[in-house]
Design a protein that fits this description.
The chain has about 290 residues and is α+β, with helices and mostly antiparallel strands. It contains six helices and 17 strands. It has two domains: about 5-115 and about 230-240, DNA primase, PRIM domain, CATH 3.90.920.10; about 125-225, Alpha-Beta Plaits (2-Layer Sandwich), CATH 3.30.70. Helix 1 packs across helix 2 (about 100-105). It comes from Streptomyces phaeoluteigriseus.
């Protein structure tokens, strides 16, 4: 019988808690839920008001993995949903606004992916993202080198960048922005990526051509498009081990000399949150947003 748990007055059926989702480490579904409950205080501000895309892996990363944007069947009526404009027609999507909704979504075994805008103003981007993806034999070490250059380049335009691991191979740079459409932010991000390639031609790449990627860091600027989403800070990833898209300090980026130095599992991230709080908290402060140059 599926146990019923009460979370802030909401009744949740949390199923298959002993099921091993990450065979490489024995990490169970119950541990997934415990992780999300532990980091809820820092995760929720990055989810709130952003339509959620689900990358689900109910049988673990080695099983079926599928992406869904529409409200899943059986969604409780107390979970907030909203109609979201899309080129192919409007869709109704989930908004994770509180702890009960987070635990309900986590019980579906999902990565959390969100756009760079909030539902109250889908026409204006409030975040800029640059996804640094290394092509082997390049690793996150090379991503760090590119990230440091990008940090300075963005700062020259009055934009403060923050870093997190992708939870896979690379890094994500995030910045709070204001006053621009997703199209304008995409245009600006591409411009910066082109400059990175021009400055570091042996290391950085802005073009999406896969044959050009070995040994280089692809600076993916395209995730700023209104229809695109990026792994949310603190989300678990569907990888062989329970790795997390974890915020990191610029000191850690600068000091990185080996890939495992910027690889964090669920337990490590929970400990980092207890010690440091949210290293990306400034992204959620309205006064921290920069304005793109004309």
């Amino acid at each position: 019988m599926t146990p019923i748990t009460e979370v802030e007055g909401r009744r949740l059926a949390l199923s298959n808690l002993e099921k091993v989702l990450y065979p490489a480490t024995g990490f169970t579904k119950g541990e997934v839920l415990h992780y999300y409950a532990t980091v809820a205080g820092v995760l929720l501000p990055h989810l709130r008001d952003r339509p959620l895309s689900f990358l689900r892996y109910p049988d673990g990363p080695g099983g079926q993995v599928f992406f869904a944007k529409n409200v899943p069947p059986g969604t409780p009526d107390w979970v907030t949903t909203a109609e979201v404009p899309r080129a192919e027609g409007p869709a109704r999507m989930v908004l994770v606004q509180d702890l009960p909704s987070l635990m309900w979504a986590a019980n579906l075994v999902t990565e959390f992916h969100t756009p760079q805008w909030v539902i109250q103003d889908a026409e204006e981007a409030d975040r800029l993202v640059l996804d640094l993806d290394p092509g082997a034999p390049a690793t996150v070490v090379e991503c760090c080198e590119v990230a440091l250059w990008l940090r300075e380049r963005l700062a020259a335009d009055g934009i403060e960048a923050y870093a997190k691991t992708s939870g896979s191979k690379g890094l994500h740079l995030l910045a709070a922005v204001r006053g621009s459409s997703s199209e304008r932010v995409t245009e600006y991000a591409k411009q910066v990526a082109v400059e990175a390639e021009r400055t570091m031609p042996r290391l950085a790449l802005h073009r999406m051509t896969r044959s050009l990627r070995p040994g280089k860091v692809f600076v993916d600027w395209s995730q700023n498009a209104a229809r695109k989403t990026t792994a949310t800070p603190y989300t678990l990833r569907a990888r062989p081990e329970p790795t997390v898209s974890a915020p990191v300090t610029w000191d850690e980026v600068e000091a990185c000399a080996a890939p495992d130095e910027l690889a964090f599992g669920a337990e490590a991230v929970a400990g980092r949150v207890r010690e440091h709080g949210d290293l990306l908290a400034e992204l959620c402060e309205p006064g921290s947003a920069g304005q793109l140059p004309d």
